[in-house]
Design brief:
The protein has one domain (about 25-220): Substrate Binding Domain Of Dnak, Chain:A, Domain 2 (Up-down Bundle), CATH 1.20.1270.60. It is built from four helices and no strands. The chain has helices at about 10-15, 20-70, 80-145, 155-220. Helix 2 (about 20-70) packs antiparallel against helix 3. Pfam families: BAR_3. This is BAR domain-containing protein.
Length: about 220
């Protein structure tokens, strides 16, 4: 599955540091913050689901153990013991399938989305902070240049040189940040969809295994 996306901010507007660039950048930053909040909720919900599932699996395992203990009460009834063993074994198999599904939820949703938040979104946030720092330096350079005394050529030249260097640094940093934001916006689609697809494949396998197990029990049920 391929996703394509162009620059989320026009490069010419970026180079000009236009009001449109600032406005669009602010919108993109707000979207990223919202994305982070929503992803953290998904991660938290999935973590709760996995923990609750593990508790369920643990309790069902305990149930199977208790049933094994119960079977000793029928040691003189081989037929009943055999039936109990078959049913208990089936419960244990279901537990294995459920454990695998929970493991896949951890390996896909929890691992992938947590990595996306801690690496990709964190990188975009750090890039934004650096851009803000350089932007402040550019504002200071503009202020110094405008207040330079023109009757002092050396001071004026220094102010002009500082402004030129700071403006070049800002443009480079702004372009780098636009690239970072664009890649994040493109990557989020692939990351989310591919992660959920992997989890749904695991769910499909889980239900197929359960179906096959139950189908295998049909002759036993009818007997």
């Amino acid at each position: 599955m391929v996703f394509q996306i162009g620059p989320v901010i026009e490069l010419q507007e970026c180079l000009r540091d236009s009001p449109k660039f600032r406005s669009t950048l602010e919108e993109q930053e707000a979207q990223i913050e919202l994305l982070e909040q929503k992803l953290e909720r998904v991660i938290k919900a999935c973590g709760t689901m996995v923990d609750t599932g593990k508790t369920y699996v643990s309790q069902q395992s305990q149930l199977a153990n208790c049933l094994w203990d119960l079977s000793v009460c029928f040691h003189d009834d081989p037929d009943t013991t055999s039936k109990l063993n078959r049913l208990i074994h089936s419960l244990q198999e279901m537990n294995k399938f459920h454990t695998i599904l929970l493991d896949q939820a951890s390996r896909t949703i929890l691992k992938n989305l947590t990595s996306f938040v801690k690496e990709d979104i964190k990188a975009a946030r750090e890039s934004r902070h650096y851009l803000e720092k350089v932007s402040s330096e550019l504002d200071a350079a503009l202020q110094r240049n405008s207040s330079a005394v023109r009757s002092r050529p050396l001071e004026t030249e220094e102010a002009n040189n500082l402004l030129a260097a700071t403006r070049a640094c800002f443009r480079h940093t702004a372009l780098s940040h636009v690239h970072c934001v664009t890649m994040l916006q493109a990557h989020k689609q692939h990351e989310l969809v591919s992660t959920l697809l992997s989890y749904m494949h695991a769910c499909t396998t889980y239900f197929h295994q359960g179906y096959d197990l139950c189908e295998g029990l049909q002759p036993f049920f009818k007997s």
